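Backbones bend. Shown next:

***
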Amino acid sequence: MEQIAEGLHLLRGTPRHAVNVYLADGHVVDAGTRWAARRIVRQVSDQQLAGHLITHAHADHQGASAALARELGLPVLVGHRDADAIASGQLRDRAPVNPITRLQLRTWAGGATPVARRLHEGDRVGSFVVLETPGHSPGLISLWRESDRTLLAADVLFGQHPVTGRPCLHEPPAIFTLDPALNREQIRRLAELRPAVVTFGHGPPWRDPEGLQRFAASLPS
């Protein structure tokens, strides 16, 4: 695992940074696709674990969640607006319906996952505070730690180009995003925090607060 900040590590994945899974204060954050369970368990089974947090109900973030919760005995934490989708395994209304998202649901999504805790704005998860940041998904949450200005932004932003994989700031593609305009509001909100380090669901960490603010300011209203 790669340490990003105090108590925050990025798990190994192939390709690197394509679909990220983190360990944050003992919480496995996201779970990749249904095929990622074995590699995640290998990396975290010797850690002191407190739970499994799913940032939002998309197939590339909850795919291995049911297996992780079962194999590791972890309580599952989810933003309250996406909790029913996680609990039922019915993700269809969490993203636009198109051939790509239908294929993801068939090949990447995991099954129903019991939810132990439904998270709201201001709740604490370890040393982090929950921010409700809907747009990409109705219940997407981010995690913020003010003491060292560390932000887990999930898919509010991509840290790489979605096609080429080149490291850069990028909006999540509209074909995966229910409300792009609302998501841009969340990008602007997160940029105002001036995070020292930002992690993403896709892409390497970002350590340029001014660059994030410039990117947010360049977005259409």
In short: The chain has a mean pLDDT of 97. The domain at 2-218 is CATH 3.60.15.10 (Metallo-beta-lactamase; Chain A). The longest strand covers residues 128-132.
